């Protein structure tokens, strides 16, 4: 335990999950020991003793908490995580077999309330939203890979009417099912933009590095090089009133799998994966928080479309400004990226960096530590000990645990990637200077909040703390 007693008390009171595994909280008055993140009623400080791990707590005569289950955590067991991941896999595979949320709860053998709690904690969403997204995702694959009618596909994936299918499909795809089926049209396709879409802010973000080699903004036109699983494409986007026209340029015509992937990448890039309406409704109902929306309604969580590239951003951006992180990424791209016929470069693949040594990155401006972290991550992705793409369908808890097992990926980097790469809605990049300064200004604090105070303040925005982070960044003009 390298932390002081005062620090551990503060983090226990804040239920800081990032400290799970660093120490154990023992409550002498009840004879129970807990994880720092335990949400049970907090004990009086004089009744608390801290331990290195469960064995030390048991040796002191304490027994494990039945709520946070510290022994399961240290043994790598999480019954709730296992249960909900298995259910999620079944839903993705056969969404049409589940009529509604009640059917999900019955399949999991838990109450509807418990199911909601599990989905919120492990997937940062609700059971109903997860089911709807899974149905639409199944329809995506069927529409591009089969010739059956749209009605047949809609009913097979679980929608009870064509109107419900159409509404959900447009909401999660930014286009109609008929238009989606024509994704491979040589003339391109169009995505529908919401009425409150903050185009000016989006274009400012997309052009945050005016010297970028992999993307380019010119007025209302945008180009970006995207490395897919089997193909690299340049997407040409033209923003028009209420819509964006997309045209793809590649060495060969994209196949169904490529089109499925590029559509998903563009939704992430443009912030069309998640609507902010529930977040805005929650803040509008709280006078103390509603001002965060002033001048920022419609703001969306814009993601890095490539998970490996998002991890590069996370490592390059550790304890540096956004401008310098852009410089590091640009130098990497210029040296090891893949030039496209369009003139843009696809960012370097992990395989290209895995072959390097730390000394190769020092002339680019990387510190020895940051160079080492990047190469460790590249090798982990290359040998699949860090399966970034596979993790996209796993729980947030598993994603964070897997990321944190890689040297150089700490609480900030893992939550940054979970937000910016995986699009998870309830993350807090602890230690982020932009977030700390944003909280100081918004809540009129005399100084930047401590770690425990950051968690306490951000809890007010749960379960949309990722969106709150974006708003706090945006208020300061940060395009992180």
Automatic annotation (TrEMBL):
Superkingdom of origin: Bacteria
Q: Which GO terms describe its molecular function?
A: alkylated DNA binding; DNA-3-methyladenine glycosylase activity; DNA-7-methylguanine glycosylase activity; DNA-binding transcription factor activity; methyltransferase activity; sequence-specific DNA binding; zinc ion binding
Q: Which InterPro entries match?
A: Ada-like_dom_sf, Ada_DNA_repair_Zn-bd, AlkA_N, AlkA_N_sf, Alkylbase_DNA_Glycosylase/TA, DNA_glycosylase, HhH-GPD_domain, HhH_base_excis_C
Instruction: Please name the GO terms of the biological process aspect recorded for this protein, alphabetically.
Output: base-excision repair, AP site formation; DNA alkylation repair; methylation
> Required cofactors, per record?
Zn(2+)
Report the GO terms under cellular component: cytoplasm; protein-DNA complex
Where does the HTH araC/xylS-type domain start and stop, copy by copy? 81-183
| Keyword annotations from UniProtKB, A to Z | Activator, DNA damage, DNA repair, DNA-binding, Glycosidase, Hydrolase, Metal-binding, Methyltransferase, Transcription, Transcription regulation, Transferase, Zinc
What reactions does this protein catalyze?
A: Hydrolysis of alkylated DNA, releasing 3-methyladenine, 3-methylguanine, 7-methylguanine and 7-methyladenine
Question: Pfam families in the record, alphabetically?
Answer: Ada_Zn_binding, HhH-GPD, HTH_18
Q: What is its EC number?
A: 3.2.2.21
Q: What is this protein called?
A: DNA-3-methyladenine glycosylase II
What species does this protein belong to? Deinobacterium chartae
């Amino acid at each position: 335990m390298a932390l002081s007693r005062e620090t551990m008390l503060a983090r226990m009171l804040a239920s800081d999950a990032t400290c799970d595994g660093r120490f154990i909280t023992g409550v002498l008055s009840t004879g129970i020991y807990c994880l720092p993140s335990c949400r049970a009623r907090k004990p009086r400080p004089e009744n608390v003793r801290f331990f290195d791990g469960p064995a030390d707590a048991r040796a002191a005569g304490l027994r494990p908490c039945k709520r946070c289950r510290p022994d399961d955590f240290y043994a790598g067991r999480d019954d709730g995580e296992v249960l909900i991941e298995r259910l999620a896999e079944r839903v993705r595979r056969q969404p049409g077999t589940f009529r509604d949320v009640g059917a999900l709860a019955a399949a999991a053998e838990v109450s509807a309330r418990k199911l909601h709690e599990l989905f919120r904690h492990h997937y940062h969403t609700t059971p109903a939203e997860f089911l709807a997204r899974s149905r639409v995702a199944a329809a995506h694959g069927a529409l591009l890979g089969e010739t059956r009618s749209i009605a047949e596909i809609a009913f097979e994936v679980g929608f009870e009417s064509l109107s419900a299918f159409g509404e959900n499909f447009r909401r999660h795809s930014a286009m109609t099912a008929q238009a989606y089926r024509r994704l491979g049209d040589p003339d391109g396709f169009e995505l529908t933009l919401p009425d409150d879409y903050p185009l000016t802010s989006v274009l400012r973000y997309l052009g945050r590095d005016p010297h970028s080699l992999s993307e380019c903004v010119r007025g209302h036109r945008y180009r970006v090089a995207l490395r897919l699983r089997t193909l690299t494409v340049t997407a040409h986007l033209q923003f028009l009133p209420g819509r964006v026209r997309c045209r793809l340029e590649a060495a060969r015509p994209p196949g169904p799998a490529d089109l499925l992937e590029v559509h998903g990448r563009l939704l992430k890039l443009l912030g069309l994966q998640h609507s902010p309406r529930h977040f805005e409704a929650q803040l509008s109902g709280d006078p103390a928080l509603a001002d965060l929306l002033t001048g920022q309604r419609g703001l969306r969580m814009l993601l890095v479309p490539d998970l490996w590239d998002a991890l590069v951003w996370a490592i390059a951006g550790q304890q540096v400004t956004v401008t310098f992180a852009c410089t590091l990424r640009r130098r990497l791209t210029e040296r090891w990226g893949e030039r496209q016929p369009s003139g843009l470069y696809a960012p370097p693949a992990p395989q290209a960096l895995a072959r390097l040594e730390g000394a190769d990155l020092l002339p680019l401006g990387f510190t020895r530590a940051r160079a080492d972290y990047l190469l460790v991550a590249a090798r982990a992705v290359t040998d699949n000990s860090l399966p970034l793409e596979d993790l996209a369908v796993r729980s947030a808890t598993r994603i964070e645990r897997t990321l944190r097992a890689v040297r150089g990926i700490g609480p900030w980097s893992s939550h940054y990637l979970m937000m910016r790469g995986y699009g998870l809605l309830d993350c807090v990049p602890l230690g982020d200077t932009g977030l700390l300064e944003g909280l100081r200004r918004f809540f009129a604090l005399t100084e930047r909040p401590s770690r425990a105070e950051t968690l306490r303040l951000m809890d007010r925005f749960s379960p949309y703390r990722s969106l709150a982070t974006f708003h706090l960044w945006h208020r300061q003009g940060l395009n992180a």
